[in-house]
Amino acid sequence: RASVNRIIKLMNEVVQFEEEYIAPLLDSIHLETKAKGERVFRIPKNLGVKKAPYFSRVFNIVDQMLFALKVE
Known about the structure:
Elements: H1 2-35, H2 54-69
């Protein structure tokens, strides 16, 4: 139970970081581009930020967590 609580706490911190820092940065890039009359069809690759769908990331983390809990 303690291991799961630590993992969930870490996941919540990652989500909070993305909401506070990453999302506003990406929003500002999109707004700047839109103001110039251009359209952004995908997130620019050279930002160094890969934003996978949240469910996909959670599934992978939970899968690894369940595997790790089996290890003595």
